Amino acid sequence: MVYHSSFVDEEGITKACGFPLLPLKSHIRGPAPVSDQGKTDIVDEAITFFRANVFFRNFDIKSPADKLLIYLTFYINVALKRLEGCRTLAEGTKAIINLGLEDVPVPGESGFPFPGLFVLPQSQKEAELLRNYLKQIREETSGRLLSVAYRPNGTPNKWWLAFAKRKFMNIIVP
């Protein structure tokens, strides 16, 4: 059974291209609203559910937050692929920073992993809002992923990095 997001209440949540701009527990500047530090956010859910959800080829979408969960699951898969060859936390941090410097495609642009799943941007402003949100959420996810992919002593956690070999929804990670 696929794990779905608990963020099904859409009231007051801004959307861009079908993505809900959910609150984040983040210190990174961006368009995401700030969430309480004690609450679970979408990044926590994505990391928690990743090891179960990565095995599924199909994903029933029950809310717009599930689309964001799909995107984050794919991004975690990409990040783990980059961390696969890194033997220390310092090497892993460098690889994740380089991943964060890459362009963030939005629906309708080449390189976006889920064509057809998300609505095309209606304006350049909406595209930039989504691009900035995705950049912020990717940076936040990367930072939190490092804390689970590596042990406190800086060595790789094989129980996480083993999932780099999995393909999520049969999508080949670049």
Task: For this entry, give a set of tags.
174 residues, mainly alpha, ARPC3_sf
Provide a compact summary of the structure.
The protein is 43% helix and 2% strand. The chain is mainly α and 174 residues long.
Tell me about this structure:
The protein has 174 residues and is an all-alpha fold. It is globular, with a radius of gyration of 15 Å. Helix 1 (42-53) crosses helix 2 (64-83) and helix 2 (64-83) crosses helix 4 (124-149). The mean pLDDT is 85. 43% of the residues lie in helices and 2% in strands. A two-stranded antiparallel ribbon has the order 1-2.
Task: Describe the SSE topology.
Blueprint: E1 15-16, E2 19-20, H1 42-53, H2 64-83, H3 89-100, H4 124-149, H5 158-161
Antiparallel strand pairs: 1-2
Helix pairs in contact: 1-2, 2-4, 3-4
